[in-house]
Structure formats: C-alpha cells, structure tokens
User: Fold this.
Amino acid sequence: MRAVDLPYDMAEVIALNTQYVGIGAGGSVPMLARLSFIDYRGHVVYDKFVVLGVSHPASDTRDVGLYLPFRTALKTPNQVIGLQTLVWQLMRRKIQATHHNPVENARAVMDLFRSHEADWQKTISSGQWPCALPPTSYARCYV
Assistant:
C-alpha cells in the first residue's frame, strides 16, 4: 500500500542508464553508445548499443544525481555525485565492483528513485521542484 497516490502508472516508470564513447579528434566529443532501460520492478526493458540524439522534457525526468535530498544527505548540495557513491552512501550497496554494467546501474537508479518516490512526487505535485539544475553541459539533453 502506498502512502501517497501517484499521478502515474508504475508501467510508465523506467530507469535509464547510458554509456558514452568519445568520437571526433582525440575522442573529445561524447556520443551516446548504449542505452539500458529497467522497469519499475527491475526487469530489463531495453539494453542495446545505439546512437540517439533524443532530448526530453525536464519535467518528466527524475535525475537521482540532481535530487537535492540525496545531495543534502551527503552534505554536497552543490556537487553532482556519481552513482556509485550515491548507491554506497545511501543504500550501502556496491555497484561496478569489477566493471561498468549499465543494467546494474539502471537497477540502482530505480532503487534510489523508489526509495524516495513518494516524497519526490509529493514535492512535484505541490508545485515545487526537488532537484538542482543540471550542469550546462547537459542542456542539449532537455527541452
């Protein structure tokens, strides 16, 4: 039973993890190379090597790296904290122990989201935004 009615169906919620490769002169330009989508229950929905140039509405994004309660809990409200650190500090779970695994990372993102989902959605429903602004280098990812 949920403490808060959510304004969406769980089937509409996914975690996304990406891997980038460097292209161009000396590999200096990051290009999306792999996408991994995990559903609300942790099942793999999509895990492919791809190249996309898709942007999306910021209002439909729940970025655990920008979520202020997570950053405040780690006493780093002005820093973007890496997923590995977030998962260890907030869930006491190790990820990427031997290698980068996008599916494992996407599951960790979903678990972090679900751990604060009701508060996150309640804040948004009240007309507030619980996240810091993304770094300007991410601007091309949002519309």
